[in-house]
Amino acid sequence: MSPRPLGRVAAAGSGVVMALTLAACTPNPSPEVAVRSFLLAWQNGDHETAAAYTTGDPGEVAATLADVHEQLDLASLSFGLGPIERGDDSATAEFDVTADLGIGDPTWNYTGRMPLEWGPDGWRITWSPSVVHPDLGEGERLAVSYEIQERGQILDREGEALVTTESVTAFGVYPGRMEDAEAGVTELADLLDEDPGPLLDRVRSAPPEQFQPLVLMRDANVGQALLGQVAAIPGADTQAVEINLTPSVAPAVLGEVAGTAEHRVSSRVPGAYQAGDTVGLNGLQNIFQNELAGSATTQVVSLDADGQITDVLESWQGDLSGGIATTLDAGIQRSAEAALEAMPGNGYLVAVDVGSGDVLAAAARQSDGTGGTTDDAALTGSYAPGGVFTIVSALAALESGAVAPDAEVPCGYQTEIGGQTFTNPDNGALQVDPTLARNLAFQCTVGFADLSGEVGAEALADTAGRLGLNTEWQLALPANPGGVDIGDGAADLAMAMNGDRGVRVSPLSMALVAAAVADGTWNAPSLVREEGPTPIAPTELDQADLEVVREGMRQAVAQRMSLLNAYGEEVLGQAARTEQDGTALHWFVGYQGDVAFAVLAEVDPAVTLVNQHAVSSAASFLNYLANGVPEAAAATATDGAVDQGTAGAGTTGATEGTGATGATTGGTATGGAAGDTTGQTGF
User: Fold this and answer.
1) Is the pTM of the predicted complex or chain greater than 0.70?
2) What is 380-505+536-577+600-665's CATH number?
């Protein structure tokens, strides 16, 4: 719930006559005039005038009516006049009450009753607390009580909890023990660097003898000095609270939970918010805030002079919090995160289920060594794929009829298209058995460029769409499906065949491409079970065409990245290097068994001439999938796996390129990922 201004009132209800000129000191000629005058003055916040229409002590009545606003922390209060039963010198009037408890809180509607009596000054309301509410007795007052739900869990596909339960310290107050509630709460808010407004809103309407948790803080940040300062505030106290707070894996997917002093929640969370609430700031914690947090059960209660609850006058059952079941696999996610530990810059790894498109892992590592809750580029990034896009180009060549499965596809040292010269990685040529599969295996930039005119822009874009690129699929979280926007020139098309000039993908979209090749069907991704957008229909692909692509990916791993086959089942994939905006991009895209995955490394071009970091991380990932991630010294274990991966990748003779395709104007340039050092191709 959000802050509610004290004393704000609505316009008069339909049953209250506005045009009334009788003064309080004038005898009231009828019960109707007395009731209308009283309700109108109370509604408008003129409590002294309202008190003059009663038989009670004017000061006490005025204070009681004013206290109702504070006791309920009202956003507005309005009345409607009901029937009046009249006798000779007494009467009873009914009236309808609409009490708005604030934004995010319910509206309390009830029927009040007030007795009236005839006297020297005309008709007056016989005063007692029951005028405020029929069930209030002498010495009783109103209050609002909240029971906040425990925050729900986020679960992986096997039901494993992904959010760590932590003990935090709740800083709060006992309202009835405070000498000056406003001053005390403001002092507490200042100590915790919070806005006092939402804190005061909760304290004003709370039962005075109930502890009101206002701000949470992780125990590690609670020092003795702070505890001493809080203890010096009359009525302030602390309690231990258990809360599902920190993601154990996949922080960018699960998201961050606000509710602690470290977040300064009141200044960061828009909309309905009540002090003590937990709020998801991003990720699934934000998208499924209502399901995870539920809503408080709100009660209007009566309290006796000691602050004890005597009756529940109205209750609104809150929504129960619940768990969110995701498609993530905690073991695969941990393997992905450990595999990125040795990245020299930003790194991303996305794994999906081959048969369904379910997201099994989405890991990120930033250049400072962290994997924060805000780096969602594994899902949303927009990158040039470079040579890994030849998986798509090869299938487009087959589907368009530009080349037959066993036809020769020449791959010379260079070719010129549209005024641009294309060369292969390491400036080699494919001299033995230049089929489409082997062009794919050795990432033959020249061969794919030469095929571009026969394939055509329309066919390339169509195949890309059938593999999920340029397709409007959606995920429970923001995600980039990638796109292919090919220019009109021949060079544009040739560069697009090699993954540049208008081709942009995310690690997620490329993992889905690999899954489609493995399964024979492209499936839209899913992240949350039975939630989120309805997935689009799957796309069936031709098995004969796919066999050619698979063979190329099989040879690519066997000839250029053989270490990847050291960890269990055979691996099929493609690797590449390219540049985008001055950053070198290292890619690996492939699959093993039922897991398809894409790895992307963003690194400094000046320090990437030897190691293909995406291939190294792919080796680590496969190692951890096969052997598990060591619980202790995970980073050391990752470094060892990466060192082995570097040795394997280093035998490919890869060199850093200056562009996604190795194309230059009026000259040559190297590009792509790896060359063949077997002596068969001259790469």
Assistant:
1) yes
2) 3.40.710.10
